Amino acid sequence: MSRAPVRDLLVGLFVLAGLGAVAYLSFSVGGLSYGGPPRMPLYADFDEIGGLKPRAQVVISGVKVGQIGSIRLDQGYRARIQLDVDAALKLPIDTSASIMTAGLLGDRYVSLQVGGDNKLLQPGDQITMTESAVLLERVIGKLIYSGADRGKNQ
Q1: Inter-residue contact 43 to 72 (CB < 8 Å)
Q2: Does residue 154 carry a pLDDT above 70?
Q3: Domains in the chain, number
Q4: DSSP-derived 3-state class of residue 119
Q5: Handedness of CA 43, 80, 103, 30 (dihedral sign)
Q6: What pLDDT score was predicted for residue 3?
Q7: Other C-beta atoms within 10 Å of 97: how many?
Q8: Domain limits at 50?
Q9: Helix/strand/coil for 120
């Protein structure tokens, strides 16, 4: 009879560890975090965001330095993106932002290319040099139509 309480204790610990793992994965997938280091909001306007979503990564040289805070439409019907980047970064004002795709059909993220100016971006500043997302559907469509036009001219 002395084996039953030990077995029950081990089963209980195993179940608790499983519930803890499920909770951790749920928070990770949901994008929730403890807050992390202080963030600095920056803004960038794009003509086409191609499926970019809030909480997508912001990277410099492949290293995550922040995430997308919000996406909204401005008065000029352009997508206005709030980039929440690590406040410890010293980004020059000529830093540029591009919307990239992870792999061929992967998630979208924003890549920052650091400039060389001595003046630095401050919280709430605008990144003026931006490159919109390249949509695979449009590229394929242009290839198809240009091939069809070439066939007609021959």
Answers
A1: no
A2: no
A3: 2
A4: coil
A5: positive
A6: 76
A7: 23
A8: 39-136
A9: strand
Q: What is the DSSP string of 27-42?
A: HHHHT--S--S-EEEE
With vertex at residue 46, the alpha carbon angle to CA 117 and CA 51, rounded to the nearest 5 degrees, is: 125
In the numeric block, which tokens belong to residue 132?
A: 């919109």
- The CA R_g of the chain, rounded to the nearest whole Å, is 23
Q: Are residues 57 and 125 in the same domain?
A: yes
Distance CA(94)–CA(92), nearest Å, equals: 5
Instruction: Please identify which residue in the block is written with the tokens 């590229």.
Output: 139
In a domain, 60, yes or no: yes
From start to end of the chain, where are the E strands?
A: 39-46, 57-60, 63-73, 79-86, 96-101, 108-113, 126-127, 129-131
- Model confidence pLDDT, tens digit, residues 108-149: 999 999 999 999 999 999 999 999 887 777 778 888 887 666
Neighbours of 46 (CB within 10 A): 20
Token couple for 94: 């000529």
Q: Would residue 146 count as lying in a domain?
A: no
pTM of the model: 0.69
